[in-house]
Amino acid sequence: MQIKSVVVKMENVVEVVNANKSFKNQNVFENVNLNVMQGEICGIVGANASGKSVLFKCITGLMSLDSGTIKVWDKNISNGRFAKDIGVILDCTGFLNNFSAYDNLDMIATINKIASHERINEVLRMVGLEGAGKKKVKKFSLGMKQKLAIAQAIMEKPKFLLLDEPMNGLDSESVKYFRELFLKMRDEDGVTILLTSHIAEDIDTLCDRVYRIADGKLHKAK
Asked: Rounded to whole angstroms, what are the CA distances from 168 to 28, 174, 194?
């Protein structure tokens, strides 16, 4: 009996082509090209102010390129179009300090109406905030706020996570836990992750491919 081989086509989740961005005639990055494939974890490293966060904001649609194109799930991200089926942690991620962790997530959940009340409680347990769901965010430590940021990113079970310094402010035990969680999401759920981290062990442990951004250029590092 002849056995037919099955070819699994890997899909491009993110496609950046000849991307350029500047502020007041100062280049942030130029001619950036990047492909992130479905089911992989891809890392971008670089010094502070090297352009990592700006590139991430352009990928989400929060900023526009000067020229070039960005596609997420084969949809152009431009002219007010935002990436879909994506969970995001950015340096601009903010919460309403006078509301609880649960209420913050509940308000975010009303936008897409995907995450149920049960799911909100589930992710609070997943990130270790089950005992702080009713506590006002203004009383949270930096680490607790970071856990809440991760909770909002994964709450709607997106197939693509874009995470800017996801381990910021976390203790070593929490870092270990979230590394394992992100790897599990990749391996068991096929989630694609694009992340930055200044922690070398995060990059070494998590990433299938790594790029370095320096002097406005993006180069493959791993």
From this structure: 23, 11, 16
